[in-house]
Amino acid sequence: MSEEKKVIVELNENPEYIINMGPQHPSTHGVLRFEVSLQGEMVKHLIPHCGYVHRGIEKMCESLTYPQVIHLTDRLDYLSAHMNNEAVSLCVENALEIEVPERVKYIRSILSELNRIASHQLWWSAFGMDLGGLTCFFYGLRDREKILDIFEESFGSRLLHSFIVPGGLMHDIHPNFKKGITDFIKYFRKKLPEYNRFLTGNVIFQARTKGLGILSKEDAINYGITGPSGRASGFSCDIRKVEPYSAYPYVDFKEILYNEGDTFYRYVARMDEMVESMNILEQLIDKMPDGNEYTSKMKPVIKLPEGEYYQRVETARGELGVYIVSDGNKTPYRLKLRTPNFSNLFIMNKLASGYKIADLVAISGSLDLVIPDIDR
Amino acid sequence: MGYQRYDLAPLTHSIDLFLYNHLPATWAFIAEMTIIGVVFLIFYAVIGLYLVLAERKVCAFMQNRIGPNRVGWFGVIQTIADLFKLLMKELITIRKADKFLFNLAPFIVIIASFLGLAAIPFAMGLHAIDFNIGIFYIMAVSSVGVVGVLLAGWSSNNKYSLIGAMRSGAQIVSYELSVGLSLLVIAIYSGSLQLSTIVESQADAWWIIKGHIPAIIAFIVFITAGTAETNRGPFDLAEAESELTAGFHTEYSGIKFAFFFLAEYMNMFLIASVAATVFWGGWMPLHIPGCEGFNNAMDFIPPICWYFGKTAIVILIMMWFKWTFPRLRIDQLLTLEWKYLLPINLVNIIVVALIVLMGWYIK
Amino acid sequence: MKSIFNYITGIFKGVWTLLKGMSVTGKYFIRLDKIVTQKYPENRKKLKMYDRFKGEVIMPHDAGNYHRCTGCGICELNCPNGSIEVLTDKITTTEGKSKRILDKYIYHLSMCTFCGLCVKTCPSTAIAFSQEFEHAVFDRQKLTKVLNKQGSSLVKDIAE
Question: How many Å lie between the alpha carbon of B215 and the closest alpha carbon of chain A?
Answer without folding.
Answer: 25
